[in-house]
């Protein structure tokens, strides 16, 4: 049974979007709609006018070939897409699902950091990182997914393999993929299959999460590289060591630095005693100079 009240409400919300998103916004618009049941698919026809026209005037030929002036009535595709989205979300209340998808996306990214920490001592994982590092520039400021997309497609593909390897048994990632697929099926049932690749919801969402996950791996690498280089941010360890042993050297450098610190990040006792003696010597020396 058709819920006409729900369709009316969704139509009203959609037309509010239509009014607001047009450039310039519609001026005191009047609109009417009619629900048609005369085909296999129930549909609605809309008609809209402004109290005072704000659309640009264009010239075009009428059906008799005469050149006439009239307001431009075509809506930009971007506005049409926004109207469809508002209508759908209002009608079937997909907001809860989209919020859940966003939460899962953020959780998956957080999981990448955890999996990276767990796998960094794995020899196979280390070999993958060493191979991948050959695709990164020396400047750590360019260690991001966007740079790889623009400059090194093979490096981007290898980074995608690394993130997929880290997430191969991740339940949150599986849930995210399933939710995205379910929402894609819902969209196709409502809109049909779009011929525009950039409107493929599932493709776009999977591209987005690959980018986020890739940047999580790159951030983990950059953090270790900075630590190994004693926080000299612009100097990459990859310029100093054998590429085939980069990641192993990176981890050893970080471990060496940590071993020189006591619990809680404090200087170890031996180093602390040396520093105290040096400070006492400098203090005594300065007092003698003052007396003289």
Overview of the molecule:
The structure is a single chain. With about 290 residues, the protein is mainly α. It has 2 domains: about 5-90, no CATH class; about 95-260, no CATH class. About 60% of the residues lie in helices and about 10% in strands. It has helices at about 5-20, 75-90, 95-120, 125-135, 145-150, 155-165, 170-190, 200-230, 245-260, 270-290; strands at about 30-35, 45-50, 55-60, 65-70. β1 (about 30-35) and β2 (about 45-50) form a beta hairpin. α1 packs antiparallel against α2 and α8 crosses α9 (about 245-260). It is elongated. The N and C termini lie far apart (about 105 Å).
Fold blueprint:
Blueprint: H1 4-21, E1 29-36, E2 43-50, E3 57-61, E4 67-71, H2 77-92, H3 95-119, H4 123-133, H5 145-151, H6 153-166, H7 171-191, H8 201-228, H9 246-259, H10 269-291
Antiparallel strand pairs: 1-2, 3-4
Helix pairs in contact: 1-2, 3-7, 3-8, 4-6, 5-6, 6-8, 7-8, 8-9
Pfam families: MobL (PF18555)
InterPro entries: MobL (IPR041073)
